[in-house]
Amino acid sequence: MAKQLVIIVGAGLSGLSAATLLNERGVDIVVLEANDYVGGRTLTVKPSTKEEELQFGWADLGASYVGPTQDHVLRLCKTLGCETYLCKDNHDNIHYSRGRRCRYTSSWPCFWWSNPFAAWDLRSAIIKIQEMVDQVPEDCPWKAAKAIEWDKMTFKEFLNKQCWTRDAKEFLEAFCVINNTADDHQMSLLFFLWYVRQGQGINRIWRIKGGAQERKIVGGSQQLCLKMAQKLGGKVILKKPVFQVRHMDDGIMVKTTDGTVYNGSYVILAIPPVTHMKIHFDPPLPSLRHGLIQRTPMGLVIKWIAFFRKEFWVEK
């Protein structure tokens, strides 16, 4: 069978993984990336001097952690020769709320300074959430028995009904924002439950040991994309923002902002849904698909990273 050109838009983990898989099977591919670097949601920065790099290492501004059950990315690390290391878990946790600081070593805060019932309220809510999560099919959440009911309710409305104490409610609101980069009133209860289902449960998402924050990649997570792109060589083309995708009788035509035209049999859009709005599709996308794109915004988040010469908090 003759090779068929597949045009892949986006050089993040998804786009480069698809490109690698197809390339290994002899399919002729090209990857178009709008930025002047590969990585997508992964971006690793290092100090400007070698001396500082040896002292401080690196920092992941995007995706950073890997953990148990994340088999695909762990397998990719092994294939590309990227080592991982365990994150420290022998420390106290600090919960700061309404001007008060609480140290605790368990997975969840105890709220001893505020309300003696808050810890019970939080654990009761977590158990309830996990019971609901277990009822959501991993691949088709809309088939859950109460899918319609849960999809009509925001996660905030659920917390208002479930939680009796302000502390428990505020902690779960923070859990939602930290993990979804969106407020609890911006997502349905069904979506939140499905998110937790995808993460193998609320405890695994939150924990370090045995959880989603168990490991990091030595040298930074962007290495995964950099190494895949290096193997693909000239098949990855940077600074090529796509603005038109046209479906014709004999294949697909993709056009970039500099006027370059690429023709192929298939196109893979490995980019965030909201960025599809910057592309002109001919024929237009179905109305339901277009509506979905408009209602799937990017998350809003700031990642703040500090370097310290000594772990002074351990000494104290």
From TrEMBL:
Entry's localization field: Mitochondrion outer membrane
Location of the Amine oxidase domain: 13-314
Cofactor list: FAD
Example of a GO MF term: primary methylamine oxidase activity
Record bears the keyword Transit peptide: no
Signal listed as a keyword: yes
GO CC annotations on file: mitochondrial outer membrane
EC number: 1.4.3.-
Membrane topology: Single-pass type IV membrane protein
Signal peptide range in chain numbering: 1-19
Residues the entry annotates as binding FAD: 14, 33-34, 242
Catalytic activities: benzylamine + O2 + H2O = benzaldehyde + H2O2 + NH4(+); N-acetylputrescine + O2 + H2O = 4-acetamidobutanal + H2O2 + NH4(+); a secondary aliphatic amine + O2 + H2O = a primary amine + an aldehyde + H2O2
Keywords attached to this entry: FAD, Flavoprotein, Oxidoreductase, Signal
Similarity remark: Belongs to the flavin monoamine oxidase family.
Function of the protein: Catalyzes the oxidative deamination of primary and some secondary amines such as neurotransmitters, and exogenous amines including the tertiary amine, neurotoxin 1-methyl-4-phenyl-1,2,3,6-tetrahydropyridine (MPTP), with concomitant reduction of oxygen to hydrogen peroxide and participates in the metabolism of neuroactive and vasoactive amines in the central nervous system and peripheral tissues. Preferentially degrades benzylamine and phenylethylamine.
UniProt protein name: Amine oxidase
